Amino acid sequence: MKILFITYYWSPCSGVSAQRILYFVKNLVEFGHECHVIHPKGASYYGVDSSMESLVHARTKLHPVQINDLTRFIKKAGAGKTDNVKKSGGGFVSRFLKYMRANYFIPDPKINWVNPVIRKAKELHKVESFDVLFTNGTPHSVH
């Protein structure tokens, strides 16, 4: 079976969401399924662990999609020393970007990655003709 996975959280993200989908894909590949994964290139994750990349099965076909992550811009604008954009504080630009993130990016701040991912999924489906499409969230925009 050919399966296309679309996930925002993927290696080197160290969060539980990334681990869950990474192990799921790894097990499916070991059971003989052909797994393709669309994931963001250039995403800004809270936790990063480069050793997670060693868990990706060699037969997994990865399709990174370059994105513009609003979280990265907020961090650069000085969201604070905690590196967490959800905490209060920071300079005017940082506070303004946080306000925009919370109030105008519906359903979530990752919405900017949807169009490039849809284009990539359509391109791949024309060539691969997938049996299953699996989206993994959060963020909600992935669905």
Short structural description:
Helix content is 34%, strand content 17%. It is built from 4 helices and 4 strands. The chain has a 4-stranded parallel β-sheet with strand order 3-2-1-4, sandwiched between helices.
Account of the protein in words:
There is one protein chain. Helices cover 34% and strands 17% of the residues. It is of the alpha/beta class. Helix 2 (70-76) packs antiparallel against helix 3 (92-103).
Separation of the first and last Cα atoms: 21 Å
User: Rough shape?
Assistant: globular
- Give the helix/strand class: alpha/beta
Order of helices and strands: EHEEHHHE
Strand content is 15-25%
Helix content: 25-40%
Q: How many distinct beta strands?
A: 4
Calculate the mean pLDDT score and round it.
Answer: 84
In angstroms, what is the radius of gyration? Answer: 16 Å
Major beta sheet summary = 4 strands, parallel
Poorly predicted regions: none
Strand order of the biggest β-sheet: 3-2-1-4
The total count of helices amounts to: 4
Which descriptors apply to this entry?
single chain; 143 residues; alpha/beta; 4 strands; 34% helix; globular
Helix and strand arrangement:
Layout: E1 2-7, H1 16-30, E2 34-41, E3 61-66, H2 70-76, H3 92-103, H4 114-128, E4 132-136
Parallel strand pairs: 1-2, 1-4, 2-3
